[in-house]
Every structure is written in C-alpha cells, then in structure tokens.
Amino acid sequence: MMSTKTCRSETGDPLLLTPGPLTTSKSVKQAMVHDWGSRDPAFIELNRKVLVDIAALAGGDGLVAVPMQGSGTFAVEAMIGTFVPRDGKLLILINGAYGDRAVKIATRAGRAHVTLVTSEDTPPAPAELAKQLTDDPEITHVFAVHCETTSGILNPIADIADVVAKSGRRLLIDSMSAFGAVPIDAATVQFDALAASSNKCLEGVPGLGLVLCKETVLRDCGGNAHALSLDLADQFLALEKNGQYRFTPPTHVIAALSQAVAEHAEEGGVEGRHARYRANCDLLVEGMREMGFETLLPDDLQAPIIITFKMPRDPNFSFTTFYDALAARGFLIYPGKLTVAESFRIGCIGRLDHHDMAGALEAVRDVMADMHVTSGVAA
Ligand SMILES: *Cc1c(COP(=O)(O)O)cnc(C)c1O
Predict the structure, then answer these.
(1) Ligand 1 atom 5: the closest Cα is on which residue?
(2) What is the CA radius of gyration of the chain?
(3) 94 alpha carbon to ligand 1 midpoint, in Å?
C-alpha cells in the first residue's frame, strides 16, 4: 500500500517516468564506485562479456554488439554513416521525431535519402513500403524506428523487415526505446544493424550507445563512415585487435551496464522485463482512463514503454501546475512532442513496478482534485 504522497527511488531520488534517463537500481549505481583502467585486463574482460551478452539478447547468431560512446543518437548517427555507403540511398520511415532526426543525420552525412511519412498515430503500411521500394530501385537501405518514442507507438518491425528483405534491400533499426524489453530475434527479423543504448530498457546509466550488427556486413563497411569517431567498422576492428577502445571509454557506464545486464537476466531476460513493463503500462492506462484521460493510441498500437495522453479539456487543467505538483510528489513526467494533438507522456520503463505506478496514479488523482479538475477527458 502506498501510505505517503511522495514516492522515491531506492536512493531517495524522484521516480523518472520518462523515456530516459530513467530510474536505475541502487546496485547499478553502486557499480560505478570503482575506477577502472581502460587497458586493464579486468576491464577488457568486463567489456567483452557485456557486449556478448547484449548481442545474445537479439538471438546472437552472427551478430556483434559494437559500442559507441555517447547518447543514443551517437549510435544512430554511427549506424547510418557506417552502413549506408556514400553512394547508397536511404529510405527513412517517419512517424515521429526520431524518424525526422534520421533525416537530419542523413543530410549531414551527405547520404541520398527519401522518406515515407505517416501520421504520429499510424504505422507505415507494408504494402506502401513495398511499392516505394519497387518504384525506386536506387534505394539501398531502409531506416525504421522500432518504438517511436514520440508517441509510444510500436511499429510493425517484423513486417517491415520482411518487405525489405524480399525486395533485396537492407534494414537499419532504431530500437533505442524498445531493445531489451520488446523481443526481436535476428534469426527471424532480418536487419543489418540495430541501435540501442545503455540506458532505456537495459536500465543502465546513460553514456553508451550500442549497435548490434551483422558481423559479415560490418566487415564490408570499412571506409563508409564520414566521421572518424562515429566509424563502427573502425571501432569494431580496434576492439577485436586488443579489446581496447580507440578513444576513452566511459568505464563507469560500462561497469554499471554490466550490472544492469546481470539484473536483466535475473528478471528473466527480455521476456521478464517485457512482462513488468506491460503490467506497469496496463495499470497506468487503466487508472488514467478511470479518471477520464484518453490515450493517443489504441491499445494494439501501444508499446509498453511510454504512453501519450491527450491534454484534458477542462479549463482548470494546467500542464505546468500538473507537472510541478507531480514532481513535488516525486514523479517526473514528460511533456508531449506531438504535432497531431496537445499531449503529455508518462513512461513505464526503468526500475519501476506496480507499486510505483499505483503511487503515480494516486498522485495524479490528488493533483487533479487540487486543480479542481473532475475529469481528464480530452478536447
Ligand atoms: C532515446 C531515443 C534515441 C536517442 O536519444 P538520445 O537522447 O540521443 O539518447 C533515439 N531513438 C529513439 C527512438 C529514442 O527513444
């Protein structure tokens, strides 16, 4: 039972109901109290093992996990630059901000690209993708976002991968907000590369991007990258040679990731984590709907990652007041990022369980009462 009106993490911090950075366990944070020499055999082994374990989360076979220092975008930028050759052409599937970001990355990298845009609440239709690939034989690669965190929509990655494979093109996936909690198996979903991060569903601390690559394909990508630091082929070869990073690795982040991956396995791997996030999501959506709130997405398109709620129409509702009052009770939520509707978002990933979600709902109920808002029903 939630007995108080504030809720805190194991270390007394506010709970981050956001898509990253997100709440991590105390033991993950404690893994960072040591200093590691980057050329020390103990660190080299820790790093090697964590990368092998992470590649195994997508089936492992023929895959290598190549780390990239930085936030998730660094990994996405490295993936596009390394895998799309300079004379390649990228089709970018867009239904949110992360698809838009890939356009900016391709533009900067000087890679020819075209787009297939759908609304933020609509996944791309496989038939339309197939048609665009047939109509434009110059397209060599397709970029798709797995869970588009802008809305929380789960894009049909297996169907997209089928179409791309059947047309003889290659797929790059931004699975940043899904990897580790939404199952994907490289044996059945064909892709050349998939970008993820130490934070988000792996529940490590932010600071390391990860690109799961088909090793044979990666070995053919030398010389593609437009940026030295973002060259995954070069990064892979250096690590293969002596286990060392080309440039300073975030040693503490990697030590925390190693602990986070062990905790992921203890929870039952991708399936176990998915089950907890699913339960968090269901509890949150049900409780919010009881208060009248409306989700942007129908349940069958909703990934159990982050939920977009439409802004209530009650004139007494103020998002700033709502946000601040929830923060004062220990819950940090996320503003909306949509163009289709005024909205806000509540995440259900990170070290959060049903007690935390129940606490969040209680806090929302209290804050609504304080604002004299009787229903969360949208405009
Ligand atoms: C979080 C996220 C990223 C990376 O964002 P950073 O702020 O660079 O960590 C990329 N794609 C998606 C879908 C994401 O959710």
Answers:
(1) 72
(2) 21
(3) 14
